[in-house]
Amino acid sequence: MIDLGISKLALIGAVALVVIGPEKLPRVARTVGTLLGKAQRYISDVKAEVNRSMALDELKRMKETVEDAAKDVNQTLRDNAADFEKSWAESSGDSSAAVDFSPVPEYRHPKKHWRLKQGAVPNWYKARNGVRTKALSGAARVARYRPTSFK
């Protein structure tokens, strides 16, 4: 890289002052600064694009290796399943036996029949734990639970 020290920069500045002149030197310096800034931005954009393309190529390679591994696992599972079905058919004596892989039943929430479950709880347990057995209106609830000093 170019090694520019203070003495070399001073020499370049003195030559530019003599060659260009003091009137045009600030305008030329601004122009050179803007051109250098544009060049630096262009170089950084090129570097970023190269890095992105390298990362993309690496991701593509990684994707291909994962897909190949998945294909290998899938093929191995198919081979093992075929061997298992063959050995199962041979051991059961039925050559037309096939393994039935029915789908798993759909999940059902356990509180589906909560009224039935609530009815199975004894009344003495409900009374002890404060479970409401009858619906009360708001006014009836206030009257029932009003402190005795306000009645």
Automatic annotation (TrEMBL):
The cross-references to Gene3D superfamilies, in alphabetical order and at most eight, read: 1.20.5.3310
Key words of the record? Cell inner membrane, Cell membrane, Coiled coil, Membrane, Protein transport, Translocation, Transmembrane, Transmembrane helix, Transport
Kindly provide the name given to this protein in its UniProt entry: Sec-independent protein translocase protein TatB
How does the record classify its membrane topology? Single-pass membrane protein
Q: Which GO terms describe its cellular component?
A: TAT protein transport complex
Task: List the GO molecular function terms.
Answer: protein transmembrane transporter activity
GO process annotations (BP)? protein transport by the Tat complex
The reply to whether Transit peptide figures as a keyword in the UniProt entry is: no
| Protein's UniProt keywords contain Transport | yes
Alphabetical list of HAMAP family matching this protein: TatB
What family is this protein classified in?
A: Belongs to the TatB family.
Which spans of this chain does the record mark as coiled coil?
52-79
Q: Which PANTHER family match?
A: SEC-INDEPENDENT PROTEIN TRANSLOCASE PROTEIN TATA, CHLOROPLASTIC
Q: How does it assemble?
A: The Tat system comprises two distinct complexes: a TatABC complex, containing multiple copies of TatA, TatB and TatC subunits, and a separate TatA complex, containing only TatA subunits. Substrates initially bind to the TatABC complex, which probably triggers association of the separate TatA complex to form the active translocon.
